[in-house]
Amino acid sequence: MSIEVKSLNKRFGTLAVCDNLNLTIPSGELVALLGPSGSGKTTLLRIIAGLEQPDSGSVHFHGEDATFDDVRDRNVGFVFQHYALFGHMTIFENIAFGLRVRPRSSRPSEAAIRTKVMDLLKLVQLDAIASRYPHQLSGGQRQRVALARALAVEPKVLLLDEPFGALDAKVRKELRRWLRRLHDEMHVTSVFVTHDQEEAMEVADRIVVMNQGRIEQEGSPDEVYDHPATPFVLKFLGDVN
Ligand code: ADP
């Protein structure tokens, strides 16, 4: 599902957090929103998600205006850094949750839920420990469960906000590969917020560099890295290197 953001504005008080943003994300792309803390990445993601409304401008999914659609009607999956799993539920039940709370008319049968959850657990190679509880898992395993849970409802769009931020470098690297693999296998369109340029370069098809509510540059990782379009991009990439 393609995503289009048009002339999007959002202020908090006098601060322009999204400053006339225009962005087109083709169906099937994995896009990183990259920029320093406070540049507006999370706000843009939340507006795409339907968790926040813009002051003006619009968000289109597959050509249709979804700006004021309820979050539940948007067919999006989320993975957030602090979007904790339910501690009192097994990892199987955590993944099944989104399917169980569907309205009765669109709720799969118990057998279909079981098949779906076990398929997802196999995909993230956690099927052998389906009956464990989150506290019995490592941080990396927990985020693999979070990815599987987000994908259980078969979203067309996957939105991730610093999903691996709290983990150490080795686990982060491993999770990037999982994200790439799941994105490709599930045929979703993904938008991924990070302040870590290495993460963006490694995992994304396209990088959108943000600064003070504006897009400084967008392009493939190679384009952005080899040809920084503005002094800000040059400095940002240089600083983190
Ligand atoms: P990023 O994800 O790039 O760190 P954010 O979108 O989280 O940026 O925040 C951009 C700016 O907007 C920051 O200065 C932040 O403090 C401010 N901000 C975010 N959410 C709110 C809010 N609900 N109320 C007031 N200010 C906010």
UniProtKB/TrEMBL annotation:
Domain ABC transporter as annotated: residue spans: 3-237
Domain of life according to the entry: Bacteria
One GO MF term attached to the UniProt entry: ATP binding
Transmembrane segments: none
Keywords from the UniProt entry: ATP-binding, Cell membrane, Membrane, Nucleotide-binding, Sulfate transport, Translocase, Transport
UniProt protein name: Sulfate ABC transporter ATP-binding protein
Annotated organism of origin: Ideonella paludis
Top-level taxonomy: Bacteria, Pseudomonadati, Pseudomonadota, Betaproteobacteria, Burkholderiales
First and last residues shown, out of full length: 1 to 241 of 335
